[in-house]
Protein: Adenine phosphoribosyltransferase
Amino acid sequence: MPQDLDRLIAKSVRDVPDFPEPGVVFKDITPLLADSEVFGAVVAAVADHHRGATVDHVVGLEARGFIFAAPIALALGAAFVPVRKSGKLPSDTLSATYDLEYGTATVEMHTDAIAPGGRVLIVDDVLATGGTGRAAVDLVRRAGGTVVGFSVLMELAFLQGREKLADVELHALSVV
Ligand SMILES: O=P(O)(O)OC[C@H]1O[C@H](OP(=O)(O)OP(=O)(O)O)[C@H](O)[C@@H]1O
Ligand SMILES: Nc1ncnc2[nH]cnc12
Structure:
């Protein structure tokens, strides 16, 4: 079944060359989101992978990570926590600045978002250079949480993001 899902994901994610800048091949997930069977299978596969572990919080990374993280949180009976681009969260925040495949960004999380010792699964759509993921892991740890896993729909292996996350259990449904 995982191999079938890998094939379905490959078929339903569209490559868009030179977006958002020349030289980047952008992985467009919108066709996958439009197919409720594949979208549902992705959510179920990530939730099933982590069902044995106690997950208290599922952290989603703005914006595309939210789309997957929220239903996965519901499926696991866990609290959904948003990590947002800077200036969007209204209360006290922790922040981290990082590089990604096409630029730099700052992300934030509410300081009180994670219960003390809370067990956290981080979810995003694409792992590219690993900058976003590294920032999210560091935010969760600074907030007092334990990262029990990091799940992505798709890992772009040639960008070696996995190397930045060597201290985390990384789970990719599809590797290209
Ligand atoms: O591994 P990295 O090199 O850090 O890249 C991966 C990140 O890049 C994309 O987000 P983006 O910042 O483009 O934001 P979006 O989800 O709002 O489109 C993607 O959704 C990941 O979060
Ligand atoms: N090539 C890519 N496609 C989609 N999202 C990305 N985030 C970083 N690099 C990306």
Observations:
- The helical segments are 2-12, 30-33, 36-50, 64-76, 131-142.
